[in-house]
Amino acid sequence: MKRRNVLLTAAVIAIAGVTGFVYSCKSVKVPDGITVVKDFKIKPYMGTWYEIARFDFKHEKDLSNVTATYSLNENGTVKVVNRGYNYVKDRWEQANGKATFVDKIDEGALKVSFFGPFYAGYNVVLMQPDYENALIFGETKDYIWILSRNKTIPNNVKEKFLKEAEKAGYDLSRLVWTKHDK
């Protein structure tokens, strides 16, 4: 009887641990001190965006000509297709994922997953009213993207975005400026 109670207790602890792990994979928060775009509308955000700049990380290492294409799924989630040219391996690479809102559907706080239950923060912190250019912060200061509907961005917008990133504590010397030559 004692052995059965020990096994039952161990099973309950294991289930609670797995449940907590899965929940933590899905829970994403907007970082402290960061304000996301209010009155955000998902439909105008859909379509293809060109990556202008980013902090490099393992999944985008050695990529140029990077685009992110968003489309609405029937269930309300967003299909995400990130594509870039790996200039070291001399081939195109693509990652497919999904995004959902963290909380309110009219705020630019989303979470994105490319790997099963694992989500990362995607926070739209600045955007032009015409949805032409956007500044995105991740859930930590290790992730930042400047996106545009065009392969280049106007200098005044670039400066505004860089000032906002610097004010938020981002190390701008880490920015990789994406080439679009293919």
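(the above was protein one; protein two follows)
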Amino acid sequence: MRNLFIATGLILAVAITRFLPHPPNFSPVMAVALFGSAVFANRYIGFTVALLAMVVSDFFLGMHSTLPFVYASMLLAAFLGNLLRENRSVLRIVAITMAGSVLFFVVTNLGVFIMQDLYAKNLQGLGECFAMALPFFQNSLAGDMVFTAVLFSMHHIFVTAPERRLSAPAV
């Protein structure tokens, strides 16, 4: 139960950062999806908490035509987060976070191409869409890395480390 409250609190705290001034695309969206599915005993509850935090913040920040693609990216990231359920080494977290960032970039920019009339609806337009989005990818990747590091580090400090101390054999 303690893990549930701490993990939920961490997700909500990070989601609130969306209301603070930040560089474009520097957000916790991908991090909460990875984290929620990795640390909650029930991965579906973890993803649901993460998704609800984003939906509520999007309600206040404003809805847009590509939100279904953002939420689909979160769902796909939750599958990646499942890969962290048993092994949360730093290298593994970094690799899966990078994979999630690339996944988010591809899916959401495909959403921009499909839902908005910014680019010609042909292969060249698709290429232009992805090329124009590249400058935003660095902020997205940086945000994913920072927020993922914060979530998993804080979870380790407040949940994993104390549990290990309690279960360690007395000497």
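Reviewer note on protein two: The chain has one domain: 2-157.
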